[in-house]
Amino acid sequence: MTPQSANDKFKTALRASASSPELFRLARESSLIFVRSLDQLAEDHPCATGRRLTAREALDAYGREVLLVVLSEGSALLCASPAAAGIVIKRRRETLGLDRRHVANKAGVDARVVEAAEESRRLPLRNYERIARVLSLDERFISVRSEPIGNERLAVRLRTIGEENVRMTPSVTSAIAEAAWVASAQIRMEECLGIHPPLTEIEPSANYGSPDDPAYVHGYLLAQEARRHLKLGSEQLPISLREICEDRLGIPMIQAELGEFLAGVTVAIGDRRAIVLNRGGRNSNVYIRRSTIAHELGHLLYDIEARLHDLQVDDFGDLERSPSQVRDPVEQRANAFGIEFIAPQTAVLSCYESHESNPIGAVMRLFGISHTAARNQILNGLKENRELPQPSPEDLRPLYEFEAMEAYATDFHPIPGIAPSRAGRFGAVVLRSADEKIISRETAAEYLGCSEETLESAAEHVRGLWPSVFAGKS
Amino acid sequence: MDLGSFVAKYRPREMARAAANADELRLLDGVNGVQDLATRSAHRIQDGRRQVPQRSGDPGCYLWVVIPTRIPFIFERETVIPPLQSGAVKHSNLTGGQPASCGGEVWFDPADEDQIYVNGCSGRYGPKSSDELDDVVAVYQGTGYRVTSFGWDNEAHKPAMVLRR
Fold first, then answer.
1. Is B155 within 8 Å of A38 when comparing Cβ atoms?
2. A122, A123, A126: best mutation site toward chain B, by most B Cβ within 10 Å?
3. CA–CA separation, A320 and A326 (whole Å)
4. What is the pLDDT of residues A105-146, one digit of tens each?
5. Which residues of B touch A81 (CB under 8 A)?
6. Distance CA A337, CA A341 (A)
7. Any idea what the Cα angle at residue A452 is, between residues A451 and A458, rounded to 5°?
8. Interface of A with B (CB under 8 A)
9. Is the pTM of this model over 0.80?
10. Who contacts B29 (Cβ-Cβ below 8 Å, separation ≥6)?
């Protein structure tokens, strides 16, 4: 089919009120490009400086009626009211408790630009989009809707937690908000691509134990059950937590800088959930980071809805404690889940007992866990409190293979300078979405913070790094 | 710039898209409420039709086109007898489907008779560049009006549809 006939077919289907699946299919085949400004959507023009959108992207965001008006009139009004953009941005910034200077810094714009945006002044759409993403707003609806679209309940919860927890600094709050935007966009694009989270038979468990039946025991049992469901067995060691979360469970895992104290966060994105993982603090040690991911996985897989808040924040304090020493049964169970999931007790004991010299170091190296975690798991398995040999200084330095396994391409991404929050699976999903005209190359480059040329030169490398994202590509 | 200079610079062009029905080509005249913006003196704006707009199509909207000797304009929601099939007046009802140099929307300020608000929002005759919009605004200013233009939307390369600071 020639590009022209594909475009004509799409236009005809639009006018004929074709069914949505058919319309979306034809939009993907079409090479029509639209251009968006703060106020309107128009047919593309070489002189237009706004955001270029594919037909699928425009249809997805603004719907059939708007596209029909563009095709008949040349452009269509998107703006809900002249003040809508500013009202939404200001309201969300205040909900998050951030000041303008901080938002400006994170968005890479001048503070006066944020102020002008809050007054809904005529500014380049890209400035509005960058500010929106920092605030976890869906940038496609800036000026189009008078109410904040995107992660509103999360924003309220971030503010509430921020008021109670001094560790939730503005930097941490905005990092979580931005990471939630990344997760939302990733989920949205994956849905458009037909990549759905795999169905598992894992059911949440309301059993958090009782005084005679500690929660950590249930955490161990649930970890064993999860390993069975995921067909990990006790032989498959070590495991990549990143791969299990993203590829096998469809849980977006976003890496972010969350300061010194927070280990990780789980956030609700519609009916899905994502993990925001701190790259800094004690998580800069990959062994600790793996424990954090496994702990968060314990929450996401097994906590019941009533326990799973829109935002769950875990700090390092409890994470490295032996499960039995953690008071909160929810956290105690997640801790036990985490260690048993990464390092099943029977396998740990087997490793420990089969190494006469430096057995604790052998456990750490085999399972990719910290000295504290290894020690707790060995003592729990031995069911006695004894002095264990100290690991060598070399053992305390994590093996590089675990860093490569979990950080994957974050530190050596083919796109130079890409933000860590966008350097994971998100980048591959963005590229495939651009390949399949779910989004334009321009949007893709903007999402990844690079030029279209840089995206093109990195494309093959990105495809090679995330084969699971490109498997079954149409 | 006066009307003659404008029309000489921007020659009348055919409608950018065809009429959706025969009624869109019905030429309306003074009997239907069409007036001429090129001659300032005799404009009659009914009570309640003077509004300050925010967006294209807002209440109080009048449509205008530039043809060689006149700038006919009409209230977009004018009651036309017999009623128009589309339910509202189109720019083509000011030309009968014939070429025009430019087109758009205009509002008359409720508190200031000299103040009007103008944009180039016409799917059929809208200006093709910011220069063309500026020039037509200059024509209006030449008739004695103080003109607030919606301006040009560089991002869409279209006349702006929203009045912003």
1. yes
2. A122
3. 10
4. 999 999 999 999 999 999 999 999 999 999 999 999 999 999
5. 54-55
6. 6
7. 90
8. 35-42, 45, 47-51, 72-75, 77, 79, 81-82, 119-122, 124-125
9. yes
10. none
